Each structure stands twice: as C-alpha cells, then as structure tokens.
C-alpha cells in the first residue's frame, strides 16, 4: 500500500477521534444537570424560585411591599441589579434574562458568626450564553469592578470585586450552569462535590414534589432542620440553644410552597419526621392533633406561645435527664399527677417592657381528669407544707383560687425540660385548664385579663389571624413581634443587635407569626404564616377599574353634597350641591346645571326629596343655619317658605316625618343645644314642640318609629341619654335613660308588635354595645375590644337602613365589625385624621364599604370580602353617593372635591 494512503488513513482516524471527543464534550455540556444535586448537604434552606417577573409585579401591588421596600438590603440589591443591568447592554436585558428562569438559592453557615448564600443559575440557550459573555466582558472593562480568576481542581473560578464597597462575588460554570456566591469556601465545597461525583439531591425525600406548577406559587422552599440549630445560633444567645435543638428534632426536612397575599407571606407543605433516637418526634409520635381551644384564656399581651396538642402530655417528660432532684419523696406524686393531664399543653412568655428583665412565663395544661388532678395538687400542697412546717398559701381572686406548691421546678417534672425556670410554683384552675407561674403577680394579672376578656378569642385582630392558621396541630409556635420586641432585644446575639434595631419597623410590622405541624399519615403537614395585622387580606388589586363619566365644574369650591334626588318627570338620578358662595345647584343626569338658588347661608344637614304640600308634587326640603326651605322642581322657593327660627337658634339638621304615612308631613328640627322644634306643612309649631328641650345635642338624626298605632320619635343624645317621645313631645314610660357614656352615632333597630318587643342597638364612643327596647329597658350590654384609650366607636347604618356595622377608629386604624362583632375589615391608614365610614348594600354579594380619610383627602372602596375595589386614588373629603347599575354591573360614585362634582363608574 502506498505511503500516502497510509498517511491519509491516519489523518482520517485522527479527525474521527477529535470529532468523537468534541461531540462527547458537547453532549456532556448539553446534558442538563439537576441543580439540586449541586447543593451541599449543610444547606439550611434551599429556595427554588420561578416566575420572578410575575412575583415582583404582584409583590409591588401588595401592602407587603410597603414594608419590604424600606429594608436597606433590598434597596441596595435593587440598586445593584440596576447597575449591572446598565452595564450588561440594553436596559432591561438583565430582568428579561432572570425573569422566566427557575433557579436555586441555598443558605449555609460558614462560620460561628456568619452565613452566606449560593445562587445556581441555568444558562439554557445560545442567546443566554451570548448575554452572559457580553455581561462578563463589560464588567471586566468597567472601572468599578476588578476582575481576577484562579483554577481550583481543574475548574476556573472568577472573582469580581466592587472597588466602591470592596464587595467580592465569585462564580464558576458547570455544564451550562452558573454557580455564584460571595463565599469562595462554599464554591470550593461544591467543586469538590462535583469532582467526587457526590451528586445526590438534598431533596431526595421530596423527589416528585414541585409546587411551582401550581397557580400563584412562586417558590419551593426546602428546610433542613438538622442544620437549623447552628443557623439560629448565629442570632440568639446560647441559653436558648437547648430548646431550639430539641424542637428542631420534630422533623428532618420540609418542602413547602411559597405564596404571597396583600398582607401575608405563607408557606404550606409537608415535613418528614426526624428518625433519630431521643428526639422531639419520638416523644410525641402517634399523638393526634388537637384544637387550639385554650385561646379563650390566652391574654392579648402574650408575646410567644408554644402550643402542644397531645393525647398524653406526660410524653413530654421524656425530655428530661434523670437527676437526684427527681428521686425525692414527691416524685411518686408528681408521676401520678402527670397522668391526669392530656389534650393541650402550652408554654407562654408574656410581654415585658424591660429588655434586661426575664419575661413572665406561664405553663398551661388541660385537665384530663380534673377532680383527681386538683385533689392530688391540693394533697401535694399539704404534704409539702407539713414537711416544711409552713402555712399553705391561698389567695382568692374573684371566682378563682390561687395556691402555691413549695416544690421547685414542678412544671419541668410534669412536662419536661422545656418547662424549666419555675423556682416556685403558683397555680390556678381556670375551667378545664391549670395555669402555672413562678410569681403570684403573673397569675393575678392573667386572671384580670380573662375577666376583662382581653384574650385571643375576643381580639378581632387575633381571631382574624387564627382563622388563617391550622386549627388542629401537634405543635404550634405563635409569636407577636410587637409584644416580643423586648424579648428579642434580650436574647439576640450581641453582634446581631444592631441589625435587629435597624429593622425594628419591618419586624414589628409583620407582627403575627406562626409555625405549625400536624401529623398526617407518616408526615407532618406544615405551615408558616407571616402576617401584617394592620393590612387587608386581598388577592390582587385591580387596575384601571375607574372611569370618570361626568365632571361638572363650578365657579366656587363645593362645600356641601352631593345629595342624590330623582328627576320628578323621568326619574333619572340628579345631584344637589352647594358651593362656597352659598349657591345651591341641581345637576341633571347629563351633567348640566338645571337650576341654581342663592341661600345666603350654609346647609345644615341634608337635602330631602319628598311629596310635600297639598298639590302632592315633589319638593326639595332642607335647613340652613336658622331657616327651613322648600323648593319646587325648578328650584324656586315654595309659597310661605322659608320658615324662620330665632337668630339664636343654630340648626343641626332637618328631619321630615309622616305620622301616618298619608303624606301629611311634619318638619322636625334639632339645634346645637338639643332643642327639638316640630312644624306642620303650614309652618305652625306643633303643641308640645315649642321646643322640646333636651340636655345635649343629638348624636344623630331623630328617628320616627311606628309601633302599632303609636308614633315614637327616638332621639339619642351625645351625653349618652336616650329619649323616646310621643306625638306631643312627651317621653314614653322608661325614658329617658342613660347608657353611661358618650355617643357619637344613632341607634339601629326595628319596630315590634309592641314597645317591649321593639329593640334597638347603639354603641358608645368607648365601645360598649347597648341593646334596649322602647319600654326603656336595657336588655343587653357587650363591651368591644378597646385596644387603647384613643379608640372611638361609631354605629354605621347601611345607606338604606337595611343593616348596620360598627366602626372602630384608633390612631389611624379602622376596624369594621358586623352586628355579631365578626371582623369585616381592618386597615391601617396613613394618618390619624378622622375617617368617614359609609356602608352600602345592593343585594347578594354587592356590598361596599367606603372609607374617606379626611386628612390626605382620599376615599377607598372595599367589597364584602374586604378586597379593595380598584387601585386609583379618589380625591375626596366628604361623604359620597354610591349606586349600582345592574345592566352594566358597575358601581356609580358621585363625589365633590375642590370646584368639581364627578361621576365615576367602577367595575365590580
């Protein structure tokens, strides 16, 4: 064979070998890597995130963002991303690159004082490779960054140092994936993992779980509880470590879905139990979850509560090291006593105002055998006092009896080492529970809270929170960060205190936290909830739901209105307003001013439309400072009007009453001194009403109630007195009576078959709800939760008097309750200025709450589920008129602001 053929053959073999080698390397690079296999085993948390663009868009439309946006770290992150984006090429390329990606972030403890993060980012396409290459080249050229690289076990690691802040970030590439971290130690551990082919996934126990496939889930969150104690050790003092290590022994790991709503962050999923010996799980395995029934006795000042749902609370005693103190003569009695508890068990820490002082602590245990347990407890008291030669301590606090057992660490001996720290033990039975404390003052204040109903089950905010948590659990941790703030200051690691103080507003803003585990088959259903108490729970805020249909401008600022009236001819909706020049205007449905009338005085009360007078035609009735006016349909004063009252009279409002519903109207006026004047249609004062003199101004317009053949004028005064008057202005039997507190709103009720069966409800300024009948008997009293001395309560009738709600305003916070005191809405506003609350029912689920903040001049609308209607700001300082248009399924809102009257259509 000629040599040249041998040469050609050799070249072909070489090319084939090079081709095969190149193809195998290309295939290897193209093969996708499960990013979870790159994560080191010492990860504490791993977050698999996706839908970043949707998540950021949703986040910025929630009230959660109002708090998070103030965090310095997040502001810097946003600034840094913007800087990198500007360097990388076209504006927005970085966010388009990151937006749709599914990436991992893992957290690791890197020293005794710090932790760090690793980011795992897949590079999927040629376009993405090109973008990353361009970005790196531009970063290397930029004078802000210093570039260097080195090789570790055959893999090139690149470092970028920011010369402005000395921050360093390192990264390497592996099979089309970027691995990025500030810690070179973490990157080297991942490279060693790759080189040793130790690519087992840390989430092996959750192999087929991916919550990202579900709607509105933005991340899978993996938690390794075995690595949790070293992580928490970074933040808390060593004295908390034994409890943290024990409680972390409930589960090995969790895989949870992460969701976001307007006022909360929450994670739900499943956890695998810890299978090591002597752990928390081993001590409570096989126990059924229990309801959180003791909430009716947990005081609102509770800061931290650990709640256990167990058939046998004595199982918790296994968290004890046998010692000589457990072999005392009392041991047998303690062992017997432990078996008489079962169901619920809790350890609580109360709010403290001094970070240097240990917080008050209480243990609460449900009685499985109440009579036996109390008998044995009293026996132990007698035995201990006989041995010590002391007199038994006993104190009566209302209907409760506090006693003391001079036995140190009794709760620990009953329930395990978590319940340590009781040098002496006072106890009290409250229904089916026993409360233990090491200070009698703690039990006294706790009983006072229970008697005053300052407890979780009576707190509107806490009930709303508990409704969103699991109702049956084996273990729950509840934290109120506002109450726990001084505790955090006490127990936080000294080097982390500065960071804690810097983020005080954020921590106390998300003041409701829960971590819960419930046994389900061979796993624990797990949920974590972080909630803003003062924000509304909404899914999404709607956009572009408002449309300004009509806008009418006046020459002067509008000071009264809008008052809705109907066109007498075609029944179309019209509005009456008054401007600062004291001119009254009527605006028709087309937005045209049809008539104007100069009054010379400002309106007092509302404009009322009624068929008034002998001709039976519709008139407009209203009062000014000391006159009663009546205008016809064209805006002209009717003959004999206005009616004049003495100049000394300052009218509050006009009320039109019809004694027999026959169109024979009476005009009832109340003034700022509490005087009532009643006129007939001819303008004559009626006998007995010349005037009726009451002790104080009326808190709301007087109400006419017809009970059988009797007419009752019901008047609620600001000083807390209630009057029921007959047609001659004389009080009915039983009236007046006082409710014992000031009132700033009227009463709501309905007529019954007789005066005794006619019941009405009112609420005092301080929040006491009073129910009374027209016989003058108070039939019910109920004190609403009053969070502080600034809280003020008002009864808000529905616009058509179909129902009512109760509004509480307290330092900028508005809370709405239904007649059964259930929370309807709670919202924290920007200022503490007075709020105007209105309530509208249009049938079915068409419920609207309107809240107007008079200081910033903004009106907000909420539906029956407390979700905001629309997201555009409505500038306004006065009550609005709201209607529902069924054919278009839209609300129509009329409001005045400045010199304008506007009609706004709002999509439901």
From TrEMBL:
Q: Which UniProt keywords apply?
A: Membrane, Transmembrane, Transmembrane helix
Q: Does the keyword Membrane apply?
A: yes
User: Which stretches are transmembrane?
Assistant: 5-23
Protein name in the entry: PQQ-like beta-propeller repeat protein
Q: Give the species.
A: Adhaeribacter soli
């Amino acid at each position: 064979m000629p040599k040249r053929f041998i040469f050609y053959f050799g070249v072909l073999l070489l090319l084939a070998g090079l081709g095969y080698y190149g193809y195998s390397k290309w295939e290897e690079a193209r093969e996708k890597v499960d990013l979870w296999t790159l994560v080191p085993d010492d990860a504490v948390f791993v977050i698999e995130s996706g839908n970043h663009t949707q998540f950021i868009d949703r986040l910025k439309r929630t009230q959660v963002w109002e708090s998070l946006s103030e965090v310095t770290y997040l502001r810097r992150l946003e600034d840094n991303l913007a800087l990198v984006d500007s360097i990388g090429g076209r504006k927005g390329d970085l966010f388009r690159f990151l937006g749709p990606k599914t990436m991992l972030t893992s957290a690791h403890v890197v020293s005794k004082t710090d932790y760090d993060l690793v980011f795992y980012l897949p590079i999927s396409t040629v376009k993405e490779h090109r973008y990353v290459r361009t970005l790196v080249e531009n970063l290397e050229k930029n004078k802000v960054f210093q570039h260097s690289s080195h090789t570790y076990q055959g893999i090139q690691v690149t470092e970028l140092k920011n010369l402005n802040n000395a921050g360093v970030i390192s990264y390497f590439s592996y099979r089309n994936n970027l691995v990025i971290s500030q810690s070179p130690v973490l990157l080297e551990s991942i490279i060693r993992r790759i080189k040793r082919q130790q690519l087992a996934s840390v989430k092996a126990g959750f192999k087929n779980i991916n919550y990202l496939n579900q709607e509105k889930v933005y991340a899978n969150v993996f938690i390794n509880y075995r690595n949790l104690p070293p992580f928490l050790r970074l933040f808390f003092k060593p004295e908390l470590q034994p409890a943290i290590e024990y409680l972390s022994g409930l589960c090995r790991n969790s895989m949870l879905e992460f969701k976001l709503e307007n006022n909360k962050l929450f994670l739900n999923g499943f956890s695998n139990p810890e299978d090591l010996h002597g752990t928390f799980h081993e001590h409570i395995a096989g126990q059924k979850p229990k309801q959180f029934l003791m909430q009716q006795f947990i005081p609102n000042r509770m800061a931290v509560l650990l709640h256990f749902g167990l058939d046998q609370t004595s199982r918790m005693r296994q968290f004890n090291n046998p010692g000589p103190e457990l072999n005392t003569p009392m041991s047998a009695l303690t062992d017997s006593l432990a078996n008489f508890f079962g169901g619920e068990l809790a350890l609580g820490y109360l709010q403290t105002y001094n970070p240097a002082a240990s917080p008050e602590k209480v243990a609460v245990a449900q009685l499985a055998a109440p009579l036996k347990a109390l008998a044995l407890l009293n026996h132990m008291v007698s035995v201990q006092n006989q041995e010590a030669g002391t007199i038994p301590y006993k104190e009566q606090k209302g209907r409760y009896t506090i006693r003391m057992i001079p036995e140190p660490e009794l709760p620990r001996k009953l329930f395990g080492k978590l319940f340590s720290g009781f040098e002496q033990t006072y106890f009290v039975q409250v229904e089916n529970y026993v409360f233990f404390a090491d200070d009698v003052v703690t039990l006294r204040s706790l009983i006072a809270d229970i008697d005053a109903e300052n407890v979780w089950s009576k707190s509107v905010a806490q009930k709303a929170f508990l409704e969103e948590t699991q109702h049956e659990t084996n273990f729950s941790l509840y934290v109120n960060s506002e109450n726990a703030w001084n505790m955090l200051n006490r127990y936080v690691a000294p080097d982390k205190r500065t960071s804690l103080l810097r983020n005080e507003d954020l921590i106390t803003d998300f003041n409701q936290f829960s971590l819960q585990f419930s046994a389900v088959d061979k796993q624990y259903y797990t949920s974590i909830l972080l909630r803003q108490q003062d924000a509304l729970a909404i899914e999404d805020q709607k956009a572009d739901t408002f449309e300004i249909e009509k806008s009418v401008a006046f020459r002067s600022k509008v000071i009264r209105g809008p008052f809705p009236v109907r066109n007498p001819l075609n029944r179309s909706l019209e509005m009456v307003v008054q401007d600062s020049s004291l001119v009254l205007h009527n605006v028709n449905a087309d937005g045209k001013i049809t008539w104007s009338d100069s009054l010379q005085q400002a309106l007092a009360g509302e404009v009322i439309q009624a068929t008034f007078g002998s001709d039976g035609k519709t008139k407009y009735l209203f009062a000014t400072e000391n006159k009663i006016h009546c205008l016809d349909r064209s805006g002209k004063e009717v003959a004999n009007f206005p009616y004049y009252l003495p100049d000394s009279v300052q009218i509050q409002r006009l009320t039109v009453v019809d004694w027999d519903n026959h169109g024979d109207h009476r005009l009832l006026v109340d003034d700022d001194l509490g005087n009532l004047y009643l006129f007939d249609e001819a303008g004559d004062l009626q006998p007995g009403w010349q005037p009726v003199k009451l002790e104080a101004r009326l808190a709301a317009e007087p109400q006419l109630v017809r009970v059988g053949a009797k007419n009752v004028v019901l008047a609620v005064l600001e000083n807390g007195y209630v009057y029921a008057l007959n047609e001659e202005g004389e009080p009915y039997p039983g009236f007046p009576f006082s409710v014992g507190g000031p009132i700033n709103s009227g009463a709501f009720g309905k007529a019954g078959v007789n005066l005794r069966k006619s019941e009405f409800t009112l609420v005092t300024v301080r929040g006491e709800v009073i129910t009374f009948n027209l016989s003058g008997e108070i039939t019910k009293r109920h004190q609403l939760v009053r969070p502080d001395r600034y809280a003020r309560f008002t009864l808000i009738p529905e616009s058509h008097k179909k129902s009512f709600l109760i509004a509480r305003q307290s330092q900028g916070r508005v809370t709405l309750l239904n007649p059964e005191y259930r929370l309807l809405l709670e919202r924290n506003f920007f200022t503490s200025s007075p709020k105007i609350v209105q309530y509208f029912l249009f049938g079915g689920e068409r419920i609207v709450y309107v809240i107007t903040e008079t200081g910033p001049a903004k009106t907000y609308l909420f539906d029956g589920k407390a979700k905001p209607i629309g997201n555009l700001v409505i500038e306004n300082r006065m009550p609005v008129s709201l209607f529902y248009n069924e054919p278009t399924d839209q609300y129509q809102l009329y409001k005045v602001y400045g010199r304008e009257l506007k009609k706004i259509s709002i999509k439901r």
